[in-house]
Amino acid sequence: MNIWWSSIFLVAYLSHALSKSFKCSVINEAGFCFLENVVINDPASSKTLDFPKQQILLIKSGSIPNFSKEIYAQLPGVRLLHMYNNTAIRKFLIAVSNLTEINLQRNGLIEFDVETTENRNLKTLTIVHNAINAIPKNIRYLEGLEKLFLYNNSLDYVDLELFTNATSLKVLSLYDNFIKTLDSKLGLRFSNLQTLSLSKNKLSFIPYFVEAFPALNAISLRKNPWNCRWLEFAMGHIEARSIQIARKDAVCRHRWVGDVCCYRTVVDFLFQAQGEELRNDREQLLKLAQENRDLKDVVGRLNESVRKLEERLVDNKADGEV
């Protein structure tokens, strides 16, 4: 009997010794539980972790090289998860959970992925001041997303079709990346998108701009090498719809369109030359058309004179016969 109780005591002791409990260093008035020195090197050992039961966790420091699905199982009551500054993360999986907001800032994060299961709980995803260079195709599973912040990363290409399942998306913030292409296609519509932030990228135009964002009321465009032709077209739509432009360009070495700088390229000059050629052709056609009308008038008058002359000759002949 004593051996039996000793075994139970030993198991309980070892379980306690092997488990790791994290406690809030501070709980502020907003209910944020601040955690420090959270180190999880092996996601498989997450079953031995004990996190606080608060709904809002803010991890200030530590190291979680691979934030995997196993860790979510230890956060059943958490709704908002923030990890920033000194919390090192290399890979991050967004798994289906009770989380409504994930906020990752300055973690050295280079890659994230999304579990291939419909996720309507997550409303706000913030991955900023990191080193993300691609948006995973599985982001289409975040169907409940309303706000997406991916600014200050290393993105150079964004396919807007990846966000079409997020039909409630209201805010898309992509500023301060290296985006050269914002890929779209005819028919894509983000009917609820109100704010689009694109400043400080490498964009020259946005395909199907008018059709894709019918509900837009705020946009940031500064510090991009916009094509002047496209910007003139876009600015006409922006002004007609009273869309607010945030943080306009301060200086411009090329040409202003409104308060945004644009750049003339070889394509612009080709368009301009072609436009001038078309205008000249049009003027020549208009001139020829006018000359043709004038000629028709002259011919008409001549025909009328001939008709009158013929009538007079007929009358004179009739008088001579009498």
Automatic annotation (TrEMBL):
Keyword annotations: Coiled coil, Leucine-rich repeat, Repeat, Signal
Ranges in a coiled coil: 278-319
Keyword Signal among record annotations: yes
InterPro entries in alphabetical order: Leu-rich_rpt (IPR001611), Leu-rich_rpt_typical-subtyp (IPR003591), LRR_dom_sf (IPR032675), LRR_TM_domain-containing (IPR050541)
Signal peptide residues on this chain, from the entry's feature table: 1-19
Stored Pfam families: LRR_8 (PF13855)
PROSITE patterns (alphabetical): LRR
Repeat in keyword set: yes
PANTHER family, per database record: ANTIGEN BSP, PUTATIVE-RELATED, CHAOPTIN-RELATED
Protein name: Leucine-rich repeat protein
